[in-house]
Amino acid sequence: MSFITFFMNRKPIFTASMASVILAACSTQTTTYPKAPTDVTVDNYFGTEVADPYRPLENDTAEATLEWVKAENKITQDYLSKIPFRDDLRRRLTDLSNYGRRGCYWRDNDGMYYFYENDGLRNQSVLYRTAQIGDSAEVFLDPNTLSADGTVALTGTSQSNDGRYTAYTISRNGSDWTEIYVMDTKSGQLLSDHIEWAKFTGAQWQGDGFYYSAYPRPEKGKEFSNANENHQIYYHKIGTPQSADRLIYEDPEHPLHFHSAYVPESEDYLFVIGSGEGFGESLMMKDLRTPGSDWSVIEPSQDYEISPLGVIDGKIYLLTSADAERYRIVTADVKAPQRENWKDLVPQQEGVISGVSFTPGHMIVTFEKDANSHAYVYDLDGKQINEIQLPAPGSVGIWSSRRYPEVFYSFTSFTYPSAIFSYDTAANTSTMLWEPEIKGVDLNGYETRQVFYTSADGTKVPMFITCKKGTELNGKNPTLLYGYGGFNISLTPSFSAMRMLWLENGGVYAIANLRGGGEYGEPWHKAGTKQQKMNVFNDFIAAAEYLIDNGYTSPEYLAIQGGSNGGLLVGATVNLRPDLFKVAIPQVGVMDMMRYHLFTIGWNWASDYGTSADSKEMADYLLSYSPIHNISNDGTPYPAIMITTADHDDRVVPAHSFKYAATLQAADTGNAPKLIRIESNAGHGSGKPMSKTIDENADIYSFIFHNMGITPNAE
Q1: From 259, 525, 684, 706, active-site residue
Q2: H/E element holding 330?
Q3: Known catalytic residue: 374?
Q4: How far is Cα 651 from Cα 199, in angstroms, rounded to an integer?
Q5: Is 564 known to be catalytic?
Q6: Greatest distance between any 2 Cα atoms in the chain
Q7: Most buried among 65, 143, 474, 562, using CB within 10 Å?
């Protein structure tokens, strides 16, 4: 039987007729788990009744939920505290993380050079500036001073085009909710301006103010769970209260759309990008030089990716997937910007265009080829001039600006910590400006190879494998397989100091570039969406089988990990093939596919998943793989599982993980532990303090090693 046939023929656990069995399940597990609050809720999806006994856990502020969370955390911490090497791993992770890290330089509108840096163990990176690279730098913004525990993160900055003001955005406790503050750039003095309840936005400057996107103030007590609707664009004038901000754009007929503003440096035009319904974006613009001018619709649908890159000499530069599955760069006259008038500047290439930036006379265009970065210099007529020679296969981030001749880039790979380079467009040469020093780690002792394995339907899928040089392929190496497979997101090489703890203990680290991602453009992405989502799980299963068949590991030494959509991946894959894995780490996962669209911005994922309200066919498909609804209850041994989530996650609400954990703990899946680790004052992951990141990784690695029966060396 193929994996697809096996998958589609599985019977959902949570039919109404079996609800009593679920609630009364007799587990053979030795751990006594807390009793979760339950009720007798049954939902009807086009004639199929589905019980949801743990519906009360969706109320994350209810006393019963809070008590359950407290009890679950106690059991988890009691379990982890008994692992004898946990403290040693935490100390080793602290040592590995204690090195200087610096972000790519950029030159802002005031002419100064800026960069983020963390000198080791600061909870948040500090933003510095200097008049000249190489000179001593001054602190411009230090988010570590904004909270005692490091849970306020600086998420972005934006200077007015004259350089006078700097708007900066912060997130509290990992939430997606954004606050905007404004400071005088030269003096650093904080002004009175303060924007609340903004989301998925920065500041787009025009005149003496800026555009931003926000939602209406949410209901008190439901700030992190209720659905977000009616994303609006406002204009804020410096020195005025938020209550005086002018509403610029809203679309009440489509309350589930996102709306973002973009203003080019010339400040002549306002673009509004819409998203949230299709695979891509809609785009419209208006002329700011003419008061009361009408909107000009460039692309009405959300069927294609489309990003405005700038306006130069009356031409709009756009990056789009329209008629180009791997993207192309086009130009359009501002007076006739519709698609029928577009002209190819850089046509679709073999690789996927992943980024575009400008210099005074050039474009720097980055491509992904087999999930590795390549960067090229083009003139403004679309002619390729040079390729920037990168140090090795890996990932690059480019900064350049039409204001200044400098080009900076950062480069990283699995065994190459992020370093910063300058690039001379005239000489076609790169100069390293800064590289980190990691003491006690010989990176030359490790290697990364890229392999291409075959999935269930014959598709070739790439995978990166990193390990010590000379690793013996004897099937006994502890192996950690990571995946995501969704939302057009590519997994490209990057360095992690904490990952070195795994590698230096003989671990193999593998990243599979599953369908659903963006590694090969829109066809690769769409092949892992909606009723093709099974391709993603099959790709992940095939990756595990490749690692086993080729001697890297065996089921006794194989762990899987993934976050968010990757948490869904781990949960679904464990249900399909529990025999393949020893340990599973689903992090902040989307675990209830029948109701995900009802919380915060979950509706935005419908373009990838579909929803249970779309049709009977879609509801049946979602029910057939939804992690919560397909947990075995017949004694089939499951791997050891530790779920991670956080109390302020307002992207994938913790109710997903709560309900998954409760269902898993009530089911008969063998004696391996089924734990949930619930972080406090944290969110989906972005901006998490270094201290919390170290603690979480120490717990994850301890859990994996312990359940594999391995005592790691943490010296």
Answers
A1: 684
A2: strand 328-333
A3: no
A4: 11
A5: yes
A6: 73
A7: 562
